[in-house]
Design brief:
Layout lengths: L1 H5 L7 H46 L9 H27 L2 H18 L8 H14 L8 H24 L5 H24 L5 H26 L4 H8 L2 H13 L5 H17 L14 H4 L4
Helix pairs in contact: 2-3, 2-7, 2-8, 2-10, 3-6, 3-7, 4-5, 4-6, 4-10, 4-11, 5-11, 9-11, 10-11
């Protein structure tokens, strides 16, 4: 049994799995821009979440028999939050640069990590990240896009609530079982705005693209994060996740040709620094540190 299990060891360092997951998330976000132009941010969110739900239901079975009455509201809340967060982020990307949207959204989990820290000094890190976001958005410029920033702020709130709800039900549903329950709910929530936007614009090419994007986000990142978390601490994993805004800027430059200014690069560095530093004090109590990948990332 031991020899057979050893043959399935992944010959990649855990940090490599985590970084690949980050790349998959941000690549999926960058490639979603073309679909946003075709079916709108709501339509893109609905199609991507729906395809993701189908894939997850094919590879996993939802633990319906394990659901108890106290689980219903948290599960519904997590699913709806995921849908709102995804729509909000994609709507932000429609108006502002990818890296900027990721940095603003990152304020959500960063603030959660700081608030649950036992050290009040940790609250300085959301403030540092906010300074970085100000440098990124440059509200003193005439081209400041309030709509895009507002959508990204909604996604940030959603990401923070997502983490709290995930941790609440984490003792009951973990891993792919939780996703098979919440992602379909997220798809239904996104359908409220997604179906009207996508109606009349659907084609086989759009559906195929949505399936590919769903693999990039959330299916592949979830698998990679699950493997990484088996071999590294949640704090170390969360520190690596702080690289997401920087990766968003990089892919925005390479794929979407979104050129950041020198001031914006400084802003991104401040957000990354704050995110990495916040992980030092933002741990959950020891008995709650059996974190699932969903605690640390999102499907947006």
């Amino acid at each position: 049994m031991t020899q057979r299990s050893a043959s399935f060891n992944v010959p990649v360092p855990p940090w490599g799995l985590a970084v690949t997951a980050i790349l998959s998330v941000q690549l999926g976000s960058a490639l979603s821009v073309n679909m946003i132009e075709a079916v709108g941010p709501g339509g893109t969110a609905w199609l991507r979440l729906s395809m993701g739900a189908v894939i997850l239901l094919v590879i996993g079975r939802p633990p319906l028999r394990s659901i108890r009455r106290p689980d219903v509201l948290p599960l519904l809340g997590l699913g709806v939050t995921t849908g709102v967060m995804t729509v909000g982020f994609l709507a932000a990307v429609e108006h502002i640069h990818l890296g900027t949207a990721v940095a603003i959204e990152f304020l959500g989990p960063l603030t959660v990590a700081a608030l649950r820290s036992h050290n009040r000094k940790a609250l300085v890190w959301p403030a540092v990240a906010l300074v970085g976001v100000v440098l990124l958005t440059q509200p003193w410029q005439g081209d400041f896009n309030l709509v895009g920033v507002a959508w990204a702020a909604l996604a940030a709130v959603g990401w923070g609530v997502y983490i709290l709800l995930t941790q609440r039900i984490g003792d009951r549903f973990t891993g792919i079982g939780a996703l098979t329950l919440t992602v379909p709910i997220a798809a239904v929530a996104a359908a409220v705005v997604g179906i009207p936007q996508a109606a009349g614009h659907l084609s086989l090419d759009i559906l195929a693209a949505a399936a590919g994007l769903a693999i990039l986000l959330p299916v592949l990142p979830f698998a990679l994060e699950m493997l990484a978390l088996r071999r590294m601490t949640p704090a170390a994993f969360g520190t690596l996740m702080a690289l997401e805004p920087a990766v968003g800027v990089l892919l925005g430059l390479l794929i979407l040709h979104q050129q950041p200014s020198a001031v914006q690069v400084v802003g991104i560095l401040l957000v990354v620094l704050a995110g990495a530093a916040a992980q030092r004090g933002g741990k959950r109590p020891a008995k709650e540190q059996e974190a699932s990948p969903a605690d640390l990332d999102f499907v947006g």
